[in-house]
Structures are given as C-alpha cells and as structure tokens.
Amino acid sequence: MASTKEYLDFVLEQLSELDEVSFRAMMGEYILYYRDRVFGGIYDDRLLVKPVPVAVKLMSDASMEFPYDGAKEMILVDDVDNREFLCELVESMWEELPEKKRKNSKKL
Questions:
Q1: How far apart are CA 89 and CA 56, in angstroms?
Q2: Could you tell me which CATH class the domain 5-96 is placed in?
Q3: Where do the domains of the chain lie?
Q4: What is the Cα–Cα distance from 67 to 73, expressed in whole angstroms?
Q5: pLDDT at 59
Q6: Does the global pTM surpass 0.70?
C-alpha cells in the first residue's frame, strides 16, 4: 500500500517549525530530509525514523518496524500529533545522521 499525499502533508505541517525539511517521492512512499540528511520516511502512512542513538533514547518504548521487505528496521513514531516532540526529535537526530552521499562525477 502506498502512502497518501495527505499524510505526507500532515507530517510536513507538524514539522513546519523547522527550516530545511524536504521530501522525495520514491515508489509510492516518501523519503524525509532535514538539512540535506535523511532522517526517515513515510511508509504505508507510517512515520518511521532512523534508529540513531538519540532517537532510540527519546523513544525507548517505541516499536521497531520494517519500512518494506528487505529494509533495515526503523523506529515507528506513533505520536505524530505532538508537534513539539516531533521537531525536537528531528532536530536532535541531525548530528547523528550520515551526511548525504556525494555522487562521483565520471571522467571521460
């Protein structure tokens, strides 16, 4: 089941206090970025975030779920209505997220 644009819009509105939140549509789902680093995504209308140490600490009771078959587990954020918590979570994760991979230019 693909995620809906309405759910994406809701999550983006919840994160609207943060600058530089963006997304990319991918095969019916949405990859979420904060300041050019992937922090999670929307899969089957579920907000899942990368299990970096600070996210695990802030959501110690959260369940781990697979975004899709063959993927690594991610943390399910089930309190998406809590705007303040979501912004704090994403902002605090940033330093622990891997930097965006640079594409190597091919030499001819």
A1: 10
A2: alpha beta
A3: 5-96
A4: 7
A5: 95
A6: yes
- Kindly list the distances between the CA atom of residue 14 and the CA atoms of 38, 42, 88, 106, in Å, as whole numbers in the listed order: 17, 14, 11, 40
User: What's the burial of 74, exposed, middle or buried (CB within 10 Å: 0-12/13-18/19+)?
Assistant: buried
Residue range 42-91, pLDDT digits in tens:
999 999 999 999 999 999 999 999 998 999 999 999 989 999 999 999 99
Three-state SS sequence of the chain: CCCCHHHHHHHHHHCCCCCCEEEEEECCEEEEEECCEEEEEEECCEEEECCCHHHHHHCCCCCEECCCCCCCCEEEECCCCCHHHHHHHHHHHHHHCCCCCCCCCCCC
Give me 78's structure tokens.
């089930």
Q: What's at 45, amino acid-wise?
A: D
